[in-house]
Description:
The protein has 326 residues and is an alpha+beta fold.
Amino acid sequence: MPSSEHQQQRPAERAASSYLRWLLRQPDRPYRKRWLRKIRRTRQTVPLYDETVLRTEAVAEVLDAYMYENGQFNDNQADQYEQRGPEDRPIYVKQTNRALTGKLTEKVLENFVRAFEITEPDARELWSIWHGEKHSLVVVGTLERRADLPAHGHETVSVDEDHHIGANGFPARHEVRQTIRAVGAELAGFPYFFDTNAVDVRLVSGGTQGEMTRHSEHLWRVMFTFGKPVALGATKFFHYTQNFNYTEPPDPDYRRCIYNRYNGWNVRVHFHPDRLPGTVWWAEWENDRPDSPIKYREPVELDDGLAAHRSLLSIERAVAGFVWDW
C-alpha cells in the first residue's frame, strides 16, 4: 500500500512530468535540439517544426550518453552502451517513458536537468512543481477522441473563455475568443460541438453561422463558416457567445474536454454576488463521461471580480476546469 505521502506526491510528479514534456518540445529552448540530433540513431522520425512531437527514444539517447559519460551505468549497462548497434534501443528508454508519462522520481528529474543542461529558471520551475509548491502551467492527459467527433483540420493556438453563473446558480452565459491554425489543408470553417440544446449560440465575429443541428445522441453542432478559406499554416480568430436556458440545475462545475491540444488556455468562471460558492476547486477528470471521477483537484480563491481563474501554457488530451459546492 503506497504511503499517504506518496499518494499526495503523485499529482505533483505528474504535473512536473507534463511541464518537462512541454519544455523538451519547445523550439525556442535548446533542449529540443539535443534530442533532435539523436533522431538519426533511433528508429523514430519527426517533422522538424512540429511542436506536438516528442520522440521518447531520442530523449533516452541523450540520457544514455549522460549516464555513460558520468559513470552512472553499472558495468553491464556500460558494456551494452559501448557494444550496441544502430537497431538497439536506448538503455534508459523505459525509465524515460515512465518519467514523461507521470512517474517522475527525484533522481530521474535530476538526471534530466543535468543531461539536457536545463537552465536555472526552468529547473527552478520544474522543482517547484515537483515539490508541489506551485501548480503546473501545462496539463497532459490520455483522453481519447470520441467516436462521434470528426477529425480536426486545425490546431488550436489559443482559447480565452469566460463562464458566467447567474443569481439562481445556473449557468447564464459563456463567451469564447479562439484562434486556430489550418493544418493539412485550407479551412473553410469551424464546426462547434456542445452537449446541450438548452443554449443559444451566437458568432460575434469571424464569419457566419449555420443553424443548430443534432450531431449525435449526446452532441449538437453549429457550423461557423469563414468569409474566405484560411490558407494552410495561416491563423483565424473568431469570437462566439452562448446564452443558456436551463430549466433544471446542471452539475456545479465547468469542464472542457480537449481532445487535441491548446497552446494557450485562459478560463474564468464568474459568480454572481448574490450566489457565491462555498469552495471552488481547479479539477482534472478521468474521462469525458458526465459521471467521470475527478482524478485531481486543488482549492482556488475567487479574485476581486468574484471569478475563479486558471491560465495554462498548454493543455492536451485532458478534461479540466472548475468544480464548486454551494
